[in-house]
Write a structure and sequence with these properties.
Length: 530
């Protein structure tokens, strides 16, 4: 009678390898699927190869170990897979305890069933069973008007995340002065009235965005570090009351569509890998982005990296792995999604008609800074975040380049609007939600006494520019609240340049650790300089 094809040791090694490889690859496949990304790409192949090597190493470590080590490794593998496919930490801990305790108590192994489950998950995921929605989706609702009011001019309203105001550009920085001159020339030659001293009263989008769109009267309905649901916004209600047909383009981070009279709502997923296909990135850079995003999904990876580096810092070699913050920054690609969405906006604007209002909130020039001034993409290892461990001057240079790229995108959108049926009399509103926030210390409650005037200006100074029939190009250095400027411009039915009519000191809000506004402080008295 013929013997088994594999010896027990080899069979055990194969089963352990299959369990790790199939479960990790199944999770990777689900991750790629959620990101609306194609499987048959070289960078995905590199990620699979890395999992293959890791699974082989772990299988070799697993074989021949005592029962308590095997139980620990099986519990860890089960917890990792749940962690990669769950948003809650509770089932992760329960899985680790249940698998580890059961296998140790019964002196058994669950590696075989894990291999079978992993194989089923991998095959069904790759086969597309279940499916996932695309990274950008449009919903047409019945809440808005079916026909736009032709008597009203079209409106293009761009809300650009982290766009610093012109008077917020540092006077003592030669490149900042050059960027200010470029922006003043850009907006003047295109017929805009610019409020150079405009400022937001909030540091974070979750508060600044709803505050501005509610004319400074209220904040969002659902606010957290994960994003904001604005709820009914006074600005959108005012547009609907004037007879406008509303189209919103937004990221998933800030929801303006829910609860508002919007006819068409396009939401793009800022974290998605799919837009990276539009960027000029190398296979190595794409693989690096996939790996970083995949690792960040796991709380176990982030916590393990954190504690590993705490131990490593005591050794002469220093950190042995990226910190959790470095991992998160390496996995950020929201700027790519915003720039790709910006390009698509131009295609919509070519068809703009009188009575239509396009309101777009785009996460640009928000970090990471991934492009040069001409909008060509930097290698991924040169991407910089606003809190990257590089000098402030280097972060500013990267931000200025991305700001110039965004200005090019604005120009393209304006050109598309000019070619539309509504182009001759269209109203254009462009502003930020807050400043660049490029500083040595964020102006927040926990940093009281640590931040200075420059930090306040970088945090709250933001762009505000409008163009409409009958408005002469102009530039003002006066301080003005963006929320009040938008309120005044809307009340005037967009027929004359807005002014801030509010009474009282120019004050901004400081947030606590949960981004909840807790106190107000005054802006620097000598800003902008007379």
């Amino acid at each position: 009678m013929p013997g088994p094809l594999l010896k027990p040791a080899a069979r055990e090694l194969l089963v352990a390898f299959t369990a790790g490889f199939s479960l990790l690859c199944g999770s990777l496949a689900a991750f790629v699927e959620r990101n609306d990304y194609p499987y048959l790409r070289a960078e995905v192949g590199l990620a699979v190869a890395a999992i293959l090597v890791l699974s082989a190493v772990m299988a070799a470590v697993y074989r021949g170990q005592p029962q308590w080590v095997r139980s620990f490794l099986e519990g860890l593998l089960g917890a990792l897979i749940v962690d990669l496919n769950s948003l809650s930490i509770l089932p992760v801990g329960l899985t680790f305890i249940a698998v580890g305790a059961l296998t140790w108590w019964r002196k058994m192994s669950l590696i075989g069933p894990m291999a079978m489950i992993g194989s089923i998950i991998l095959v069904t995921t790759v086969a597309g069973i279940g499916g996932n929605p695309p990274w950008m989706k449009t919903a047409v609702t019945s809440r808005g008007l079916v026909e736009a009011a032709p008597a009203q001019p079209a409106i293009l309203h761009l809300i650009l995340d982290e766009h610093l105001g012109l008077e917020g550009l540092p006077e003592d920085d030669p490149m900042a002065r050059q960027v200010r001159a470029e922006l003043r020339s850009f907006y003047r030659t295109r017929g805009f009235a610019v409020a150079g001293g405009a400022y937001s009263q909030h540091l974070h989008t979750v508060n600044a965005f709803p505050h501005i769109l509610n004319f400074g009267r209220q904040l969002g309905k659902e606010v957290s570090k994960s994003g904001v649901k604005v709820g009914e916004a006074q600005y959108l209600r005012a547009l609907a009351d004037k007879g406008y047909d509303l189209t919103v383009i937004q990221s998933e981070f800030a929801d303006l569509c829910s609860g508002n009279p919007v006819r068409s709502c396009t939401t793009y997923e800022s974290w998605s890998l799919r837009p990276a296909l539009e960027a000029q990135l190398t296979t190595r850079d794409r693989a690096r982005l996939i790996a970083a995003k995949f690792l960040v999904v796991s709380d176990l990876t982030l916590k393990g990296t954190k504690y590993w580096n705490r131990l490593a810092k005591k050794a002469p070699a220093g950190e042995w792995a990226p910190s959790p913050i470095q991992l998160r920054h390496a996995g950020r690609s929201s700027t790519i999604a915003a720039l790709v969405t910006f390009d698509g906006l131009g295609q919509r604007l070519i068809r703009a008609r009188p009575g239509e209002a396009y309101i777009a909130h785009l996460l640009a020039p928000h970090y990471p800074y991934v492009v040069r001034a001409d909008c060509s993409y930097l290698p991924a290892d040169q991407w910089i975040g606003r809190k990257s461990k590089v000098p402030l001057e280097q972060r500013r240079r990267a931000y200025f380049d991305q700001l110039r790229c965004v200005t090019r995108k604005i120009d393209t959108a304006l050109s598309a609007l000019a070619r539309s049926p509504a182009g001759a009399n269209a109203v254009v509103i462009i502003h930020g939600d807050h400043g660049s926030r490029l500083s040595n210390s964020d102006p927040s409650e926990r940093n009281l006494g640590q931040f200075g005037d420059r930090d306040l200006i970088a945090g709250f100074s933001t762009l505000f520019a409008v163009r409409a029939p009958g408005i002469e190009p102009s530039y003002s250095r006066d301080r003005a609240r963006v929320a009040e400027l938008l309120r005044d411009f809307t009340a005037k039915n967009f027929r004359s340049a807005p002014v801030d009519r509010s009474i009282g000191p120019d004050r901004v809000y400081l947030d606590d650790r949960r981004w909840k506004p807790t106190r107000q402080v005054a802006l620097p008295a000598q800003w902008p300089k007379p």
